[in-house]
Specification:
The protein is an alpha/beta fold. Helices cover 33% and strands 23% of the residues. Helix 4 packs parallel to helix 7. It binds iron/sulfur cluster (SF4). One of its GO terms (biological process) is peptide transport.
Length: 324
């Protein structure tokens, strides 16, 4: 597949009074056109900060992108002016966040909010804009959109609100959609419907999607490839089928072992021992060693190099090195 996005050595740090928190520390990955790529890991692994960095929306003050490149086709987004970047946000790339409450403004109608990116980026107004708004609400399967455009967010259920947020993100037909745990606040049935919907829209429009999640079940359903993040870095990357069949990194194996299987009892689920490291003082060597059942002396001393697993697939673990 042709590349849409290529991230190289991205670093985003938080500068605190007495410490530097390395939230994203040398992340590299690619997204092909029309491809769905997962970014998985526990909370605090740097997934969301990676996505906010792609949009150049890192929290201010405090966070700064300190290194790397983000190539969107021929443009390095980190070299664009703020004005040029605004053209990208909401137009060529859009983000759907976890909680629709924070993405929707309670004092504007749903129609006004979905129309906003249409006005801003497509410069459409009046009836033309309204036609596009209705089309987007129909696309996300909101019943009777002519009636619903005049209503306020509180008049929608949680699942319907998340659809409105998706409509806002998709209305300008972005080339890249970042979905940051968009189903966390939804119950299981609504979640399944929402996932199916995004999958269909993706297939219809050819949009590329980055799925940010801690849920490997969602990755299995939605993604072609997956990047596993730990302590601000990608520790394993590969095709979903391959990684589920033969995970190479002990952390990936642990994540897969903690996925509830049909019929498995919750109390029998494997729990990953210990806590992710404090990003202000990441241990020397492989950051996973304090929790890794297979850690060796070498793991405590040196960060494992990138070992290619063929194609674009790779892992950072001493076990995968020759003689490991
Ligand atoms: Fe475990 Fe060592 Fe591999 Fe890190 S490098 S995951 S500590 S075996």
């Amino acid at each position: 597949k042709d590349l849409l996005l290529r991230v190289e050595g991205l670093k985003t740090y938080f500068f605190q009074r007495n410490a530097v928190l390395k939230a994203v520390d040398g992340v590299s990955f690619t997204v092909g056109q029309g491809e769905a790529v997962g970014l998985v890991g526990e909370s605090g692994s740097g997934k969301t900060m990676t996505c906010l960095s792609l949009m150049r929306l890192v929290p201010q003050p405090g966070a700064r992108i300190v290194g790397g490149e983000i190539w969107f086709k021929g443009d390095n987004l980190l070299e664009l002016s703020e004005h040029e970047m605004r053209e990208y946000r909401g137009h060529r790339m859009a983000i759907i966040m976890q909680d629709p409450q924070t993405s929707l403004n309670p004092v504007y109608t749903v129609g006004e909010q979905v129309a906003e990116p249409v006005r801003l980026h497509l410069k459409e107004r009046g009836q033309q804009a309204m036609a596009r708004v209705l089309e987007s609400l129909r696309a996300v399967r909101i019943p009777r959109p002519e009636l619903r455009v005049g209503q306020y967010p509180h008049q929608f259920s949680g699942g319907m609100r998340q659809r409105v947020v998706a409509a806002m993100g998709l209305t300008t037909q972005p080339e890249l959609l970042i979905a940051d745990e968009p189903t966390t606040s939804l119950d299981v049935t609504i979640q399944a419907q929402f996932l199916r919907l995004i999958r269909e829209l993706q297939q219809e429009s050819g949009t590329s999607v980055i799925w940010v999640t801690h849920d490997l079940g969602i990755v299995a359903q939605m993604c072609d490839r997956v990047n596993v993040m730990y302590a601000g870095r990608i520790v394993e990357s590969g095709r979903v089928r391959q990684i589920y069949k033969e995970p190479q990194h002990p952390y990936t194996r642990a994540l897969l072992d903690s996925v509830p299987l049909m019929g498995a009892r919750r109390d029998q689920l494997y729990q990953i021992e210990g806590q992710p490291p404090d990003l202000r003082s990441i241990p020397e060597g492989c950051p996973f060693w304090p929790r890794c059942p297979e850690a060796m002396d070498k793991c405590r001393e040196q960060y494992p190099p990138r070992t290619s697993l063929g194609g674009q697939d790779f892992v950072h673990c001493w076990l995968a090195e020759p003689g490991g």
